[in-house]
Amino acid sequence: MNTTTVTPDMTAITARQQAAWASGDYAAVAARIPVISERLCDDADLRSGSRVLDVAGGSGNTALAAARCGSRVVSVDYVPSLLARGRQRAVAEDLPVEFVEGDAQDLPFPDASFDAVVSVVGVMFAADQEAAASELLRVCAPGGTIALANWTPEGFIGGLFRTIGAHVPPPEGISSPLLWGTEERTRELLGAGARELDMRRRDYTFRFDSPRHFTDFFRENYGPMVTAFAALDPAERDALQSEIDDLVRSFDRLGGGGPVAIPA
Predict the structure, then answer these.
(1) What contacts 97, CB < 8 A, 6 or more positions away?
(2) What is the pLDDT of residues 187-202, one digit of tens each?
(3) Is this structure's pTM higher than 0.85?
């Protein structure tokens, strides 16, 4: 039996991912979840005056949360429009954050530059997981902290990506980003470079007026959904929208046919 091994073109995949995250308006989605960043920075016990890097920081949720701890913060992302939004927010809140364009798989910083390295549902989407994990470890100073919040495969966002993937398959040869939300994969990626690993399961609850309100909002603003719907014909779009509506209903803990509360 012959087998074929697919060697992914990480440069091409990263370029497509960058274009996907630049579509829609991820800042609008991020505006729904700042509490995740606040919790992560508190759990990481960030110290005033410490040097902190926010990787794949988007429009600045986690960088600003770290700056509120008194840390000296740099946020790196590869979508210029999100960096611009983060700079606007930092000025509005009078928080000293430096925003830098760069790729999580090749961070533009020297070794051991930061006391803490953080990322909220960001670095998990890097195409080359081994490269991204190596970069997190490389730029973190000895004795420092790496703190990540990642969606899990069995949670709502995991279900959302499986639903989308059934219509628009992900690139061949790369690992699912949702593996970052498993203890086994996180130990594979970071364990050899870490003195200890502490993993905790948390829920964040999305709240919308209805299942269709959620689907419409994400379809308009969330890059992976924007690009998925754009790749489908009208009938397929209707089918995907209906399936996402059903997924929301299956996770909704209110179940009253009105507003939804979706643990993720």
Answers:
(1) 60, 63, 64, 67, 73, 74, 75, 86, 87, 90
(2) 999 999 999 999 999 9
(3) yes
